[in-house]
Amino acid sequence: MKHFFSTKVRVVLVVALLLSAGLAVLTSLTGVTVGDLAVKGVLTPLRAGVSQLTDQAEKLYDYMFRYEALAAENEALKSQLAEIQDAARDAASIARENERLRALLDLKRDNPDYKWVDGYIISRSSVDWTNTLTLACGTNNGVAPGMCAITAYGEVVGLVTEAGSNYCVVKTVLDSSLKINATIQSTGSSSGHGGLVQGAYTANHAGKLQMDHLPSSAIIRNNDTVVTTGSTVYPRGLLLGRVIDAGFTDTGVAKFALLQPAADISTLEQVFILTAFDSE
Length: 280
What we know:
- By secondary structure, the protein is an alpha+beta fold.
- It has helices at residues 7-30, 34-110; strands spanning 115-127, 130-135, 148-150, 156-163, 168-172, 180-184, 194-199, 209-215, 225-228, 239-248, 254-261, 270-276.
- It has 2 helices and 12 strands; from the N terminus they run H-H-E-E-E-E-E-E-E-E-E-E-E-E.
- 23% of the residues are buried.
- The model has no long low-confidence stretch (mean pLDDT 81).
């Protein structure tokens, strides 16, 4: 029997006895049983996990609340910005209109015989070499086909080609089919010769005017001013453009001049139709 218990078995028994004694002492001192310890061992990590989930949920709620508040603030700022931009646009529009009115006063002072009807641009059309504007004025306002259209600064916009009761269509100077008799204003060394102005008809000169039928002896310089010669349609001295280039035609027997239009057709808001003037 003395070898009945091996060394390993004896060791296990001793450890078990010591553990039992230790647990008994712990229970008597703290009142916590082994079962309590086991339950706490299981619940502690669960409680930690629940606490972590609760913290994450609170953080998510705070984030969502802040996001909604920021989104609302963003919309409010956008609305305020839109109102400011609208006010700025209105102010800029009023400023431009006041500038036009001042220019009209000067135009009327210099040309007391001019009578006109104003019309705001409601649509634009530019296809190939044609270029037209539709204005919110028509026969009810005294507008008729064949009348000249100008800016408040006395710059030629074009010619009325169609008129309804409350609208009219203006063929602009950029349209290559509209031809206007014009003169290069004589300024010292410039010649003062006349020619025919129309919308430039080559792709590399889009948005420009071309003055043809100038004599080969004509002296043409950049920045020379080109004005209407005067007729029953266009009063004398209306601005058409300024010379930016010149040269000989392919035949070499005549010259041409390339012009920057005086009227910026693309940015116009309001146009004035000359219903009457004293032709010379």
